[in-house]
Amino acid sequence: MTTLGGRRAYTRAELMDAYGLGRSTLEKWYRERERTGHPEPAGTIGSQLVWDAAAWDDWYAARGPAVPSGAVSRDELAARHGLSRHRLKQLWADRASNGHPEPAHRAGKALYWDEAEWTAWYEAHRDRPPQAASGSGTGVDDLVTLAEAARILGLAQTSVTVYPKRPPAGWPEPARVERLGGGRVRRLYRRADIAAYGERRLRA
User: Where on the tree of life does the source sit, at the highest rank (predicted)?
Assistant: First the structure.
């Protein structure tokens, strides 16, 4: 999320992502702001106009069906639970296996969840033993490469390549090390161990 003067702000691209709106729609609303009441920009960042997030959210909410009381957006969940948008999107993408709640409200492509329901689910998911969440076997299907571990954790692949030699606190030992040609090795990690490391990292 962009900030301007310490306050949350939206670029037009962020509005498109957050609300599922097209650029042409946003440009039209702004161009016709005397009629639509569209908020004035709060300033610029580089060459981009930015709008105060609270003011824009309030204006948009007044245009259509109100967001139900107690429903929160992904950005609000991120702020209240100390999670990244990437992690929240990952949890939502894995809903078939982790039981992630369904949205309580939709506005275009923007999703809102009942905060009490989501919080109860997340606390149970976070505190679940890794074996219950991901399985504890060591078969081929339970092992992941370093690149796959990076994807699970929402990290750039290049950032974890140094972990085998300079592991951060709590980084798991590989479950299997395979010798490849040219003196190279491939390290395979238990999916459950990576998931457990990720949860500890989020709590730190």
Answer: Bacteria
Question: Is the Cα dihedral 86, 91, 96, 97 positive or negative?
Answer: positive
> Is residue 134 within 8 Å of 179, Cβ to Cβ?
no
Residue 195 has pLDDT above 80, yes or no: yes
Answer whether residue 135 shows pLDDT above 80. Answer: no
Domain boundary among 11, 42, 63: 63
Average pLDDT over residues 82-111: 83
Q: What is the mean pLDDT of the chain?
A: 83
Q: What total number of domains does the chain contain?
A: 3
Record the tokens describing residue 7, joined without a space. 């306050």
Instruction: Specify the 3-state DSSP secondary structure of 179.
Output: strand
Whether the Cβ atoms of residue 79 and residue 33 lie closer than 8 Å to each other: no
